[in-house]
Amino acid sequence: MIEYFYFRSSLDSAEQDIEHLEAKLERLVKVCNIMIETGKTFKKASSDFIVGVRDLASYFKTDDLLNDDTKVSNCLSKFAHEMTEMLKYFTILLDQANRSVCQNIQKLIKTDIKKVKDSRKDFEKISDDLDSALNRNSNVPRTKVQECEEAKNILTSKRSGFAHASLDYVFQINVLHSKKRFDVLETVDELREKAKQERREMEERHTLVQKKLVCLLYPCSSNDNCRYQFMLRKTI
After folding, report:
1. CA distances from 200 to 86, 89, 94 (A)
2. Which ranges of 98-222 would DSSP assign to H, the alpha helix?
3. What is the C-alpha separation between 49 and 204, in angstroms, rounded?
4. Is the pTM higher than 0.90?
5. pLDDT tens for residues 67-91?
6. What is the DSSP letter of 235?
7. What sign has the CA pseudo-torsion 31, 34, 40, 44?
8. d(CA 117, CA 173)
9. pLDDT for 111-123, tens place per residue?
10. Do 128 and 134 meet the contact criterion of CB atoms below 8 Å apart?
11. Can you say how many angstroms the Cα of residue 63 is from the centroid of all Cα atoms in its chain?
């Protein structure tokens, strides 16, 4: 009897832990979806900005390749191109967040946690059946041999079913506890590595964009201007 109460206490603790985990995972998926939707809004605004830059570049564009306006137009076009490239990386990062976090974590919720819940339903049903069998066996009159034998057989069957259901339920709980660490860490590592890669590439793009901005703000039309432009760059 002591072992039974200890078993039920351990199950209650495990069930509370799983409910807590599920709530945390669902919240993570929710905020990730919000981040992705916000990112889509940022992407749309950035795309509109790039269109505006290209439109401004067309204003300065002339047929004279040596004209300062043409140089401004070229700088604007290059800037728009670099912005477009960075936006591509941002889009990839959003997609990675969706696949690494939303889909992977959602799979953990919908598949692994669901298996535990389904197993719990079976366990609770057979537990109720066992309680009913115990109650019937204890209340049947001992003078009625046939009813006693029938109650005993039912009790034996329910005990066997309870044992199998218990083993399956505990197995599913242990599988989830093992998988949750691996799946969560794998998800984070995958997203982290992708983010590090995107960060390096975006930093490189950022350096190029800064150079294009200097070219845009201080177009070089002569050697003297080039020297003056160089001095200005050092002060930026």
Report:
1. 11, 11, 16
2. 104-107, 114-139, 145-217
3. 21
4. no
5. 788 888 888 998 899 899 889 888 8
6. H
7. negative
8. 9
9. 999 999 999 999 9
10. no
11. 51
